[in-house]
Amino acid sequence: MSTLVKARPPKLADVDFDGFLDTLRGLIREPSVVGTEDSFFRVIRRELEEVGARVSYYQGVLTAQGSKPDQLYLSAHCDRHGLLCTGANEFQYAAFIAGNSCDLTGESVSEQMMHSIGDRFFGQRVQAHLPYTGTYQGQAKITRSYVCPHRRNLIFELDGLEFLQPGTPISFLDRLRIEDDCLSAQLDNVLSVAIILHLFRHGFQGTALFTAQEEAGRSWRYALSWFQRQQIETDRLIVLDTSPYPSRADADAQDIVLRRKDANGAFCASFTKELVDHCDRLGIRHSFKDAYVETQNLTRAKPLSLGRTELGRLVTASGGKINGATLQIPTTGYHTTSETAAIRSVTSTLWLLMNAYV
Protein backbone atom coordinates (compact mmCIF):
# COMPACT_ATOMS: atom_id res chain seq x y z
CA MET A 1 0.00 0.00 0.00
CA SER A 2 1.01 3.64 -0.33
CA THR A 3 3.14 5.04 2.47
CA LEU A 4 1.06 8.22 2.43
CA VAL A 5 -1.08 8.07 5.58
CA LYS A 6 -3.82 10.48 6.54
CA ALA A 7 -4.93 10.84 10.16
CA ARG A 8 -8.63 10.35 9.49
CA PRO A 9 -11.21 7.59 9.77
CA PRO A 10 -10.80 5.35 6.71
CA LYS A 11 -13.19 5.40 3.80
CA LEU A 12 -14.63 2.10 2.65
CA ALA A 13 -12.64 2.22 -0.58
CA ASP A 14 -9.38 2.62 1.37
CA VAL A 15 -9.65 -0.95 2.62
CA ASP A 16 -11.58 -2.57 -0.27
CA PHE A 17 -14.54 -3.02 2.06
CA ASP A 18 -16.76 -4.54 -0.64
CA GLY A 19 -14.19 -7.26 -1.18
CA PHE A 20 -13.99 -7.83 2.55
CA LEU A 21 -17.78 -8.18 2.80
CA ASP A 22 -17.77 -10.80 0.03
CA THR A 23 -15.27 -12.83 2.06
CA LEU A 24 -17.18 -12.42 5.31
CA ARG A 25 -20.55 -13.36 3.77
CA GLY A 26 -19.14 -16.60 2.43
CA LEU A 27 -17.42 -17.59 5.67
CA ILE A 28 -20.52 -16.94 7.79
CA ARG A 29 -22.45 -19.52 5.76
CA GLU A 30 -19.86 -22.22 6.50
CA PRO A 31 -20.35 -24.26 9.71
CA SER A 32 -17.57 -24.27 12.31
CA VAL A 33 -19.07 -25.48 15.58
CA VAL A 34 -16.51 -25.65 18.38
CA GLY A 35 -14.78 -29.01 18.33
CA THR A 36 -15.78 -29.81 14.72
CA GLU A 37 -13.87 -27.21 12.71
CA ASP A 38 -12.33 -29.52 10.07
CA SER A 39 -14.61 -28.55 7.19
CA PHE A 40 -14.12 -24.85 7.93
CA PHE A 41 -10.34 -25.30 7.95
CA ARG A 42 -10.59 -26.72 4.42
CA VAL A 43 -12.51 -23.65 3.27
CA ILE A 44 -9.82 -21.36 4.72
CA ARG A 45 -7.04 -23.46 3.22
CA ARG A 46 -8.52 -23.15 -0.26
CA GLU A 47 -8.79 -19.37 0.06
CA LEU A 48 -5.21 -19.03 1.31
CA GLU A 49 -3.66 -21.27 -1.32
CA GLU A 50 -5.40 -19.26 -4.03
CA VAL A 51 -3.33 -16.21 -3.03
CA GLY A 52 -0.07 -18.13 -2.80
CA ALA A 53 0.29 -18.55 0.96
CA ARG A 54 2.18 -21.58 2.26
CA VAL A 55 -0.35 -23.52 4.29
CA SER A 56 0.19 -26.23 6.91
CA TYR A 57 -2.40 -28.11 8.96
CA TYR A 58 -1.74 -29.66 12.36
CA GLN A 59 -4.13 -30.84 15.03
CA GLY A 60 -6.17 -27.83 16.09
CA VAL A 61 -4.29 -25.22 14.07
CA LEU A 62 -4.00 -24.19 10.42
CA THR A 63 -1.07 -21.91 9.61
CA ALA A 64 -0.43 -19.68 6.59
CA GLN A 65 2.89 -18.00 5.79
CA GLY A 66 4.02 -15.44 3.26
CA SER A 67 7.53 -14.56 2.13
CA LYS A 68 8.37 -12.80 5.44
CA PRO A 69 6.97 -15.21 8.05
CA ASP A 70 8.76 -13.57 11.00
CA GLN A 71 7.52 -10.07 10.19
CA LEU A 72 4.36 -10.47 12.26
CA TYR A 73 2.27 -13.28 13.72
CA LEU A 74 -1.53 -13.05 13.64
CA SER A 75 -3.90 -15.45 15.36
CA ALA A 76 -7.67 -15.91 15.21
CA HIS A 77 -9.79 -18.75 16.48
CA CYS A 78 -12.10 -20.38 13.95
CA ASP A 79 -14.71 -22.03 16.11
CA ARG A 80 -18.17 -20.61 16.69
CA HIS A 81 -20.78 -21.52 19.22
CA GLY A 82 -23.36 -24.11 18.33
CA LEU A 83 -25.03 -27.26 19.59
CA LEU A 84 -23.89 -30.86 19.78
CA CYS A 85 -26.15 -33.87 19.71
CA THR A 86 -25.26 -35.86 22.84
CA GLY A 87 -27.99 -38.51 22.76
CA ALA A 88 -31.37 -39.41 21.35
CA ASN A 89 -33.05 -36.03 20.72
CA GLU A 90 -30.66 -34.44 23.24
CA PHE A 91 -28.74 -31.26 22.38
CA GLN A 92 -26.25 -29.29 24.46
CA TYR A 93 -24.14 -26.17 24.03
CA ALA A 94 -21.08 -27.54 22.26
CA ALA A 95 -18.44 -25.54 24.16
CA PHE A 96 -19.52 -26.77 27.57
CA ILE A 97 -20.23 -30.45 27.08
CA ALA A 98 -18.97 -32.80 29.78
CA GLY A 99 -15.61 -33.37 28.10
CA ASN A 100 -14.72 -29.75 28.78
CA SER A 101 -15.99 -29.57 32.34
CA CYS A 102 -12.42 -29.67 33.66
CA ASP A 103 -11.86 -26.23 32.08
CA LEU A 104 -14.91 -24.61 33.66
CA THR A 105 -13.47 -22.54 36.48
CA GLY A 106 -16.13 -19.83 36.49
CA GLU A 107 -13.60 -17.18 35.47
CA SER A 108 -14.18 -17.05 31.71
CA VAL A 109 -16.39 -14.41 30.14
CA SER A 110 -18.28 -17.18 28.34
CA GLU A 111 -19.26 -18.90 31.58
CA GLN A 112 -20.23 -15.65 33.25
CA MET A 113 -22.51 -14.80 30.32
CA MET A 114 -24.05 -18.27 29.91
CA HIS A 115 -26.96 -17.54 32.23
CA SER A 116 -27.69 -14.19 30.60
CA ILE A 117 -27.84 -15.61 27.06
CA GLY A 118 -29.73 -18.79 27.88
CA ASP A 119 -33.12 -17.44 26.79
CA ARG A 120 -31.91 -15.68 23.62
CA PHE A 121 -32.22 -18.66 21.31
CA PHE A 122 -36.00 -19.18 21.18
CA GLY A 123 -37.11 -19.48 17.56
CA GLN A 124 -33.54 -19.61 16.24
CA ARG A 125 -33.16 -21.90 13.22
CA VAL A 126 -30.29 -24.36 13.25
CA GLN A 127 -28.77 -26.79 10.77
CA ALA A 128 -26.99 -30.09 11.28
CA HIS A 129 -23.84 -31.23 9.48
CA LEU A 130 -21.68 -34.31 9.37
CA PRO A 131 -18.74 -33.73 11.74
CA TYR A 132 -15.79 -33.98 9.34
CA THR A 133 -17.12 -33.24 5.88
CA GLY A 134 -19.63 -30.51 6.80
CA THR A 135 -22.28 -32.23 4.68
CA TYR A 136 -25.72 -30.74 5.33
CA GLN A 137 -28.19 -33.02 7.15
CA GLY A 138 -31.24 -30.89 7.87
CA GLN A 139 -32.73 -27.94 9.74
CA ALA A 140 -34.83 -27.38 12.85
CA LYS A 141 -35.96 -24.58 15.16
CA ILE A 142 -35.10 -24.09 18.82
CA THR A 143 -38.28 -24.22 20.89
CA ARG A 144 -36.64 -23.94 24.32
CA SER A 145 -33.22 -23.34 25.88
CA TYR A 146 -32.30 -23.33 29.54
CA VAL A 147 -29.35 -23.80 31.88
CA CYS A 148 -29.33 -27.22 33.52
CA PRO A 149 -27.99 -26.82 37.09
CA HIS A 150 -26.80 -30.42 37.21
CA ARG A 151 -24.88 -30.45 33.93
CA ARG A 152 -23.86 -26.76 34.17
CA ASN A 153 -24.70 -26.37 30.51
CA LEU A 154 -27.23 -24.87 28.13
CA ILE A 155 -29.76 -27.49 27.06
CA PHE A 156 -31.78 -27.07 23.87
CA GLU A 157 -35.07 -28.52 22.67
CA LEU A 158 -35.64 -28.62 18.90
CA ASP A 159 -38.66 -29.20 16.71
CA GLY A 160 -36.74 -31.54 14.42
CA LEU A 161 -33.48 -33.48 13.90
CA GLU A 162 -34.58 -36.34 16.16
CA PHE A 163 -32.72 -38.73 13.84
CA LEU A 164 -29.25 -37.35 14.56
CA GLN A 165 -26.51 -39.48 16.06
CA PRO A 166 -24.47 -38.38 19.10
CA GLY A 167 -21.49 -36.28 18.09
CA THR A 168 -23.29 -34.44 15.29
CA PRO A 169 -22.62 -30.68 15.30
CA ILE A 170 -25.49 -28.25 14.82
CA SER A 171 -24.73 -24.68 13.77
CA PHE A 172 -26.94 -21.62 13.98
CA LEU A 173 -28.44 -20.77 10.59
CA ASP A 174 -26.80 -17.43 9.98
CA ARG A 175 -26.47 -14.72 7.36
CA LEU A 176 -24.66 -11.36 7.41
CA ARG A 177 -26.95 -8.37 8.00
CA ILE A 178 -26.04 -4.72 7.43
CA GLU A 179 -28.13 -2.05 9.14
CA ASP A 180 -27.53 1.34 10.79
CA ASP A 181 -23.84 1.33 9.81
CA CYS A 182 -23.33 -1.98 11.62
CA LEU A 183 -22.66 -5.60 10.70
CA SER A 184 -24.61 -8.34 12.48
CA ALA A 185 -24.21 -12.11 12.54
CA GLN A 186 -22.45 -14.63 14.76
CA LEU A 187 -19.27 -12.58 14.35
CA ASP A 188 -17.13 -14.24 17.03
CA ASN A 189 -14.72 -15.04 15.53
CA VAL A 190 -15.40 -15.39 11.81
CA LEU A 191 -14.95 -11.62 11.59
CA SER A 192 -11.26 -11.95 12.51
CA VAL A 193 -10.77 -14.85 10.10
CA ALA A 194 -12.18 -12.72 7.28
CA ILE A 195 -9.84 -9.87 8.24
CA ILE A 196 -6.76 -12.12 8.01
CA LEU A 197 -7.83 -13.57 4.65
CA HIS A 198 -8.38 -10.02 3.40
CA LEU A 199 -4.87 -9.04 4.53
CA PHE A 200 -3.33 -11.95 2.61
CA ARG A 201 -5.24 -10.92 -0.50
CA HIS A 202 -3.76 -7.45 -0.17
CA GLY A 203 -0.16 -8.48 0.27
CA PHE A 204 0.40 -9.55 3.87
CA GLN A 205 3.57 -11.66 4.00
CA GLY A 206 3.75 -12.64 7.67
CA THR A 207 2.33 -15.67 9.49
CA ALA A 208 -1.25 -16.38 10.54
CA LEU A 209 -2.54 -19.05 12.90
CA PHE A 210 -6.16 -20.19 12.73
CA THR A 211 -6.96 -22.14 15.89
CA ALA A 212 -9.71 -24.53 16.99
CA GLN A 213 -11.72 -24.84 20.21
CA GLU A 214 -11.07 -21.40 21.67
CA GLU A 215 -14.59 -21.35 23.07
CA ALA A 216 -13.70 -24.54 24.95
CA GLY A 217 -10.50 -22.99 26.33
CA ARG A 218 -8.17 -25.13 24.25
CA SER A 219 -6.97 -23.08 21.29
CA TRP A 220 -3.89 -21.80 23.09
CA ARG A 221 -2.61 -25.36 23.45
CA TYR A 222 -2.66 -25.86 19.68
CA ALA A 223 -1.01 -22.50 19.04
CA LEU A 224 1.68 -23.20 21.65
CA SER A 225 2.42 -26.61 20.15
CA TRP A 226 2.96 -24.99 16.76
CA PHE A 227 5.38 -22.39 18.13
CA GLN A 228 7.26 -25.09 20.03
CA ARG A 229 7.32 -27.38 16.99
CA GLN A 230 8.88 -24.59 14.93
CA GLN A 231 11.15 -23.50 17.83
CA ILE A 232 9.86 -19.95 17.55
CA GLU A 233 9.92 -17.32 20.27
CA THR A 234 8.28 -13.95 19.60
CA ASP A 235 6.73 -10.92 21.21
CA ARG A 236 5.07 -9.84 17.96
CA LEU A 237 1.89 -11.90 18.06
CA ILE A 238 -1.44 -10.14 17.55
CA VAL A 239 -4.50 -12.11 18.63
CA LEU A 240 -7.61 -10.86 16.82
CA ASP A 241 -11.08 -11.26 18.32
CA THR A 242 -14.30 -9.49 19.19
CA SER A 243 -14.86 -7.85 22.58
CA PRO A 244 -18.32 -7.71 24.22
CA TYR A 245 -19.92 -4.53 25.58
CA PRO A 246 -23.33 -4.14 27.25
CA SER A 247 -24.65 -1.41 24.94
CA ARG A 248 -24.01 0.23 21.59
CA ALA A 249 -23.02 3.43 23.39
CA ASP A 250 -20.29 1.55 25.28
CA ALA A 251 -19.13 -0.24 22.13
CA ASP A 252 -19.13 2.91 20.01
CA ALA A 253 -16.95 4.80 22.51
CA GLN A 254 -13.89 3.38 20.70
CA ASP A 255 -13.01 2.00 17.28
CA ILE A 256 -10.76 -0.81 18.49
CA VAL A 257 -10.03 -2.45 21.84
CA LEU A 258 -6.57 -3.24 23.19
CA ARG A 259 -5.44 -4.87 26.44
CA ARG A 260 -2.48 -4.42 28.71
CA LYS A 261 -3.30 -7.66 30.53
CA ASP A 262 -5.91 -10.32 31.24
CA ALA A 263 -6.50 -12.55 34.26
CA ASN A 264 -3.32 -14.48 33.43
CA GLY A 265 -0.97 -11.51 33.47
CA ALA A 266 0.63 -8.73 31.43
CA PHE A 267 1.05 -8.56 27.67
CA CYS A 268 4.04 -7.15 25.80
CA ALA A 269 4.11 -3.46 26.73
CA SER A 270 6.38 -2.33 23.88
CA PHE A 271 4.32 -4.05 21.18
CA THR A 272 1.07 -2.77 22.66
CA LYS A 273 2.55 0.73 22.58
CA GLU A 274 3.46 0.17 18.92
CA LEU A 275 -0.21 -0.46 18.17
CA VAL A 276 -1.20 2.60 20.20
CA ASP A 277 1.25 4.72 18.22
CA HIS A 278 -0.19 3.42 14.94
CA CYS A 279 -3.70 4.21 16.17
CA ASP A 280 -2.69 7.75 17.10
CA ARG A 281 -0.95 8.23 13.74
CA LEU A 282 -3.99 7.00 11.81
CA GLY A 283 -6.62 8.77 13.89
CA ILE A 284 -8.14 5.55 15.24
CA ARG A 285 -9.90 5.75 18.60
CA HIS A 286 -8.79 3.03 21.00
CA SER A 287 -9.33 1.92 24.58
CA PHE A 288 -8.04 -0.75 26.97
CA LYS A 289 -10.51 -3.45 27.97
CA ASP A 290 -8.74 -4.24 31.23
CA ALA A 291 -9.04 -0.58 32.29
CA TYR A 292 -12.73 -0.60 31.31
CA VAL A 293 -13.41 -3.72 33.40
CA GLU A 294 -11.52 -2.35 36.40
CA THR A 295 -13.53 0.88 36.23
CA GLN A 296 -16.81 -1.03 36.01
CA ASN A 297 -15.84 -3.16 39.00
CA LEU A 298 -15.54 -0.09 41.22
CA THR A 299 -19.34 0.09 41.36
CA ARG A 300 -20.34 -3.56 40.86
CA ALA A 301 -21.36 -5.87 43.70
CA LYS A 302 -20.11 -8.86 41.68
CA PRO A 303 -16.87 -8.03 39.85
CA LEU A 304 -16.51 -8.74 36.14
CA SER A 305 -13.68 -11.02 35.05
CA LEU A 306 -10.71 -9.65 33.15
CA GLY A 307 -11.09 -12.78 31.07
CA ARG A 308 -8.60 -15.51 30.21
CA THR A 309 -7.65 -14.85 26.62
CA GLU A 310 -5.78 -17.02 24.17
CA LEU A 311 -2.81 -14.66 24.39
CA GLY A 312 -2.77 -14.65 28.18
CA ARG A 313 -2.73 -18.42 28.30
CA LEU A 314 0.10 -18.51 25.74
CA VAL A 315 2.17 -16.02 27.74
CA THR A 316 1.75 -18.02 30.94
CA ALA A 317 2.31 -21.45 29.41
CA SER A 318 5.41 -20.36 27.46
CA GLY A 319 6.97 -18.52 30.38
CA GLY A 320 6.78 -15.30 28.38
CA LYS A 321 8.55 -16.69 25.31
CA ILE A 322 5.36 -16.13 23.30
CA ASN A 323 3.87 -12.68 23.83
CA GLY A 324 2.37 -9.79 21.96
CA ALA A 325 -0.89 -7.86 21.96
CA THR A 326 -4.60 -8.28 21.45
CA LEU A 327 -6.58 -6.36 18.85
CA GLN A 328 -10.33 -6.61 19.31
CA ILE A 329 -13.45 -5.20 17.68
CA PRO A 330 -16.10 -3.95 20.17
CA THR A 331 -19.47 -5.67 19.77
CA THR A 332 -22.86 -6.10 21.37
CA GLY A 333 -25.05 -9.23 21.40
CA TYR A 334 -22.08 -11.41 22.33
CA HIS A 335 -22.34 -15.13 21.52
CA THR A 336 -25.56 -14.82 19.52
CA THR A 337 -26.36 -14.66 15.81
CA SER A 338 -27.07 -10.96 16.36
CA GLU A 339 -23.61 -9.99 17.55
CA THR A 340 -23.16 -6.49 16.13
CA ALA A 341 -20.06 -4.48 15.23
CA ALA A 342 -19.87 -0.95 13.84
CA ILE A 343 -18.61 -0.77 10.28
CA ARG A 344 -16.31 2.00 11.47
CA SER A 345 -14.64 -0.42 13.90
CA VAL A 346 -14.13 -3.05 11.21
CA THR A 347 -12.70 -0.59 8.69
CA SER A 348 -10.46 0.92 11.39
CA THR A 349 -9.03 -2.52 12.17
CA LEU A 350 -8.36 -3.17 8.48
CA TRP A 351 -6.93 0.35 8.08
CA LEU A 352 -4.54 -0.18 10.98
CA LEU A 353 -3.28 -3.58 9.88
CA MET A 354 -3.02 -2.75 6.17
CA ASN A 355 -1.10 0.47 6.78
CA ALA A 356 1.19 -0.84 9.51
CA TYR A 357 1.93 -4.41 8.43
CA VAL A 358 1.16 -4.90 4.71
Automatic annotation (TrEMBL):
Keywords: Aminopeptidase, Hydrolase, Metal-binding, Protease
One Pfam entry name: Peptidase_M42
TM annotation in the entry: none
Gene3D superfamilies in the cross-refs: Zn peptidases
Coiled coil: none
Gene Ontology MF annotations: aminopeptidase activity; metal ion binding
Protein's UniProt keywords contain rRNA processing: no
Keyword Hydrolase set for record: yes
Name of this chain's protein: M42 glutamyl aminopeptidase
Organism: Lignipirellula cremea
